Amino acid sequence: MCEAVAVPVAADRPLTVRASTSRSPFDEEPAIATLEISLGLPWPGTADRSVPVQLGDLPVDRCGMIIGDAAGLDTWTGMDGEPADGLADVFYWGRYADDAHARFGGERIAQYGVDGPHGWLDLPLTEAAARAAELSAWCDRFHGKGLMVSIDKHTDDHRFRRAGWNHPLRAGAIEVGGCQVLGIEWDQGDHSMRHRGERDADQVYPVTLEADDAGGMVMRWTIPPYDFDEEDK
Which domain holds residue 20? Predict the structure, then answer.
């Protein structure tokens, strides 16, 4: 269900995560080119600092990426989990969204670069289910099709996506199992054009252990520049 690269880190400080970006060749929005995670440990004095250590590789997974303490992630709740706070968000969009908004209300859920769908945040689960059912029944009765309705429980999977709604790289931090965890969601358009197929299509990118300028250890994940010539072949 997932892939991971795990390394020892210093236990007395937060991880520092930096990203460099390049413009997506498809929508010209910033996209991650490298992720660099400072591990808080010195580079071994006997090891060659000039040669990166290959740890493995990872795809740009459509479901996103999580960076954090493995012990904290033991309590991670995925899409099918139950929210610890008993809350959920309800969204609706589509051809008849304006008609639905006139009848049922709901705020515009703004996200970075887009207006976002209409809906309600932080509802008790029973209320969220009732509102979603009311919207769906109204659409079925008067229109048949043309309105999409979703209920997103406050699982960790949803919370990390929500935390990144207003970040240009769709990155946001949440607390999981008493630890701060950074989540990154990918632009779906860029993913479908550039990273589609993931590991099955050999769309994976190297993860290395390297020394930084100060002699500390960093883990680096590098996405090479897009090859237009290869796409043309």
Answer: 16-62+186-232
